[in-house]
Amino acid sequence: MAASIVRAVPNTRSRAPIVVAVVVGVVLIAIVRSQLGGGDTPKKVTTPRGDCTVVNLAASSEKAALLKTIATDYNAGNHTAAGACVQVDVVSKASGGAAEALARGWDEAVDGPRPDVWSPASSSWAVILRQRTSARDKPDLVPGDKPSDLPSVAQTPLVLAMPKPMAEALGYPAKPVGFGDLLALSRDPAGWGRHGHPEWGAFRLGKTNPNFSTSGLNATIGAYFAATGVSSDLTAANVADPKTVAYVKGVEASVVHYGDTTLTFLSNLQAADDRGQGLSYISACTIEEKSVWDYNEGNPTGDPKTLGKHRKPGVPLVAIYPKEGTLFSDNPYVVLQAPWVDDAKRAAAADFLTYLQGDKPQQRFKDAAFRDYKGRASDKVSAKNGMDPSQPRLRLSPPAPAVLDLVQKSWDSLRKRARVLEVIDVSGSMGEGVAKAGRTKLDLAKEAAVRALSQYSPDDEVGLWVFSSNVNGRPAPYVELVPIAPVRQNLAELSKRINSLVPNGGTALYATARASVSFVKQSFDPQRINAVIFLTDGKNEYQPDTNLDSLLRDLVTEDESTAVRVFTIGYGDDADLPTLSRIAAASRGASYDASDPASIDKVFTAVISNF
Q1: Most confident of 91-100, 355-364, 587-596
Q2: CATH 3.40.50.410 spans which residues of the chain?
Q3: Three-state SS for 14?
Q4: Cα-based distances in Å from 264 to 223, 462, 520
Q5: 3-class state of residue 326 by DSSP
Q6: Torsion angles phi and psi, residue 561, rounded to 5
Q7: Third-level CATH fold of 47-144+332-367
Q8: Pairwise CA distance, residues 32 & 539, whole Å
């Protein structure tokens, strides 16, 4: 849900009205700041009390804020275990990012406080962690023999969330709808015109990256189940079947873009709804059921602190439970089998689990539209709120570990390809030093940008621009260094030109943003995700173009079929984060905060997870 940023890991894929834009932009900046890495570099919640046993708990982003409030109450209750007081500190960490960090060896300098307890959104991540540690010949960190051995703190099923009028056009709620219906709609040249609404255009799906996000992982698994027609025991042969491959690839072809969490889609949808365009951005989004309630309450982040701060949407979402079946996010509570988790921490973790499964905390989960740890729904899960407590009719079980690993790894060969223009600020301020790194900001950015190239697929298309107010004396404040072309062709040239960048001049932010989007639109490829990655460390200093409102109007597109999305990176303390967030929101992209230049590796990974 909330936007998150994870550490760059090579081979993650193949071997992550204008006033309204301001509001949404501020929300996105706050979220990305607080959830860096889904919690990659978080600060601890409280200061330890005396000789208390401190339990660090890394929780998936959709429940981390709620867990923090529950932990605060628990800490105030002066609980004890094994003769010592207990303090629980909760940090947010994207499920996929935590799995990878644990598998490679947790680095507190990069990943934040080392967890004693891990609560991803789904036990599938525990299976993936076990697969990854085994492949690297490292000790197994997951207790028990199978996922069902892990205790749960709450549950919520994966759903196909659709704007209510679109769902009704498909026959909702009387007619069952599933992945097959969405695939047929996405392949129909008439699009929504087949259902009497040509004004809605083509079917467009919002889906997260299954390397980071539970909803993305479960949606990918669900598509494989739908393609094969089986409801259990998905096999490697099923995954490799050409008909299955074509089916899943067809679903992916309708994606508008990916992302590491669903927050980007839901926040962009909220902004579109605020402009009276709630039916123009996406036709469906694969998210968890409880996120439907969050969105319909005007609180797409799911953070209890922001509930009630925004009006409810004019066009609400409804939860469609795929007729082919769906998976649950079972939110396991994993006390890690790690050398740093001693008996005192285990006793403390067990006490907090008992507390979490008690009546009062469980009611708080249910009040946030989770189902409780036994799968029982509250009155929040109701038709009035766009959900059905009697659903899903068919609950799918995750495939066997080896097949689950195969499904996740197959995604890179099936996902929609990208066409990306990377635009990097080379103004003079990029030459400033970063004391703790002993390097300049530009040095760190160049190194991260080159490393991140390995995260594209060879047939993704990538080009490079740079900008400042003085680019080699040219009249325009930007210049193309590498034309957009398949990475397999221009990887060496991209690396070479990025490494040769030097700082000079001021920041020509508006003119370059306008020109880069226009450039990508001129050669738009409807079969790809067309986007601009825009990195800058400053504010607009280019006097020939100072009209931000005009830029934002230019970036808003009425035709989603030709949308070029801008993913902005605010780099360093002086970056104009509010403006960058408005630019991203206007284009229905996302904004990322790299105020700490040392976080730039993680930020690049988060941005590239959109493709």
Answers
A1: 355-364
A2: 417-608
A3: coil
A4: 22, 22, 21
A5: strand
A6: -70, -15
A7: D-Maltodextrin-Binding Protein; domain 2 (3.40.190)
A8: 20
User: Of the given ranges (109-118, 376-385, 402-411, 557-566), which has the lowest mean pLDDT?
Assistant: 557-566
Q: What is the DSSP letter of 103?
A: H
**Among the listed ranges 196-210, 456-470, 471-485, 597-611, which one has the minimum average pLDDT value?**
471-485
- Nearest to residue 62, comparing CAs of 94, 97, 27? 94
d(CA 412, CA 455): 10
Q: Give the number of other CB atoms < 10 A from CB of residue 503.
A: 18
Given 3.30.230.20, 3.40.190.10, 3.90.850.10, 2.40.50.200, which CATH number is that of 156-328+394-412? 3.40.190.10
Coil, strand or helix at 83? coil
Q: Answer yes or no: are the C-beta atoms of 458 and 418 closer than 8 Å.
A: no
Grouping H, G, I as helix, E, B as strand and the rest as coil, residue 391 is coil
What pLDDT shows up at residue 446?
Answer: 95
* Residue count of the chain: 611
**Rounded (5°) CA angle 179-281-548:** 155
**Among candidate residues 188, 178, 189, the one with its CA nearest the CA of residue 393:** 178
Could you give the angle at which helices 214-228 and 124-135 cross, rounded to 10 degrees? 100
Q: pLDDT tens, 47-72?
A: 555 689 999 999 998 899 999 999 99
Structure tokens at 15: 């071997």
Question: What pTM does this model have?
Answer: 0.85
Alpha-carbon distance of 265 to 580, in angstroms, equals 17
- Please give the mean pLDDT across all residues of the chain: 89
Helix (H) or strand (E) run with residue 317 in it:
strand 317-320
Of 534, 564, 499, the residue nearest 422 (C-alpha):
534
Annotation: CATH topology of 417-608: Rossmann fold (3.40.50)
- For the chain, give every residue range classified as CATH 3.40.190.10: 47-144+332-367, 156-328+394-412
Instruction: Give the tokens for residue 389.
Output: 């407590």
- Structural tokens at position 120: 């991803």
Does the pLDDT of residue 84 top 80, yes or no?
Answer: yes
Q: Which of these, 597, 184, 148, lies nearest to 332 by C-alpha position? A: 148
Mean pLDDT across 493-503: 96
Q: Per-residue pLDDT tens for 264-308?
A: 889 989 988 998 888 988 999 999 999 999 999 999 988 888 999
**CA–CA dist 338, 376 (Å, integer):** 32
Mean pLDDT, to the nearest integer, of 326-333? 96
345-403 tens-digit pLDDT:
999 999 999 999 999 999 999 999 999 999 999 999 999 999 999 999 999 988 998 99
Query: Which of 583, 555, 34 has its CA nearest to residue 263?
Result: 34
Largest CA distance in the chain: 72
Tell me how far apart the alpha carbons of residues 523 and 351 are, in angstroms, rounded to a whole number: 59
Cβ distance 234 to 224 under 8 Å? yes
22 band by pLDDT with thresholds 50, 70 and 90? very low
CA distance 606 to 611: 10
Look at the block and give the residue holding tokens 């939860």.
319
